[in-house]
């Protein structure tokens, strides 16, 4: 087994013999934004933290699939095409970041092997561009936990083809409503929605339009008082509804 290390000098990545017990492949990668200069340790199963001065972008295809954990990076934004030089990346975990404020247009764009995206404990994150999450055909899990988002994110351009897609939006206290067509275009197959403990006060009419729903979990949305009578209008199939600890004042099943 050989580990592949991308060189910061000119030339192709170098593949070196791995230690006998080596269990991961590492590569130094830089996000393609001259103002960020984020130096990352990309690995199978390892985390990465920190920012350095700007470095040249290093591209590598040594790894077939790998994932990246971005923890306490102190970034203010994830730029457009941030991961475009990583065609084989399959999982991204973004967490415990007190300074991250926004995801720019095409932050996660046209990543053909991406299966998991998780954004967690980013309380300063207040804006996700409507085009930030686009063309992710193999995505099977998207999780958005404990952010400062006030508006439900635009997920209508994800276009996943996974047959059992799971969306989890949890612990977002400032997110007050599920809008019309919120999940249309997210996935064209079976969809499970876990929408726990948010600041929702209402779910609008046709919020679930154009979806094939397996289950919708609305547990612990204690401020949710109104589910529009047409909220499930336009649903192709399903769902099973699961909720408790709600204070619903108005909900009609059609």
From TrEMBL:
GO cellular component: extracellular matrix; extracellular space; membrane
Keyword Signal carried by entry: yes
Signal found in the keyword field: yes
Molecular-function GO terms, alphabetical: thyroid-stimulating hormone receptor activity
Keywords: Leucine-rich repeat, Signal
PANTHER family in alphabetical order: SLIT RELATED LEUCINE-RICH REPEAT NEURONAL PROTEIN, VASORIN
Name under which the protein is recorded: Thyrotropin receptor
């Amino acid at each position: 087994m050989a580990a592949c290390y991308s060189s910061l000098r000119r030339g192709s990545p170098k593949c070196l013999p791995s230690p006998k017990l080596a269990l991961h492949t590492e590569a130094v990668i830089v996000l393609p934004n001259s103002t960020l200069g984020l130096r990352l340790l990309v690995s199978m199963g390892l985390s990465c933290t920190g920012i350095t001065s700007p470095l040249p972008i290093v591209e590598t295809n040594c790894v077939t699939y790998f994932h990246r954990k971005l923890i306490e990076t102190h970034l203010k934004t994830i730029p457009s095409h941030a991961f475009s030089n990583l065609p084989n990346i399959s999982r991204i975990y973004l967490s415990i970041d007190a300074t991250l404020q926004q995801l720019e247009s095409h932050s996660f764009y046209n990543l053909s092997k991406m299966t998991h995206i998780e954004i967690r404990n980013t309380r300063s994150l207040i804006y996700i561009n409507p085009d930030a999450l686009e063309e992710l055909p193999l995505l099977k899990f998207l999780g958005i936990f404990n952010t400062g988002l006030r508006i439900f994110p635009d997920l209508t351009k994800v276009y996943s083809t996974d047959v059992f897609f799971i969306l989890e939006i949890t612990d977002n206290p400032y997110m007050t409503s599920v809008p019309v067509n919120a999940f249309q275009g997210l996935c064209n197959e079976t969809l499970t929605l876990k929408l726990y403990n948010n600041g929702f006060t209402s779910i609008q009419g046709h919020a679930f339009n154009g979806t094939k729903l397996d289950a919708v979990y609305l547990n612990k949305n204690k401020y949710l008082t109104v589910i529009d009578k047409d909220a499930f209008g336009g649903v192709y199939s399903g769902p099973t509804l699961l909720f408790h600890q709600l204070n619903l004042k108005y909900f009609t099943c059609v």
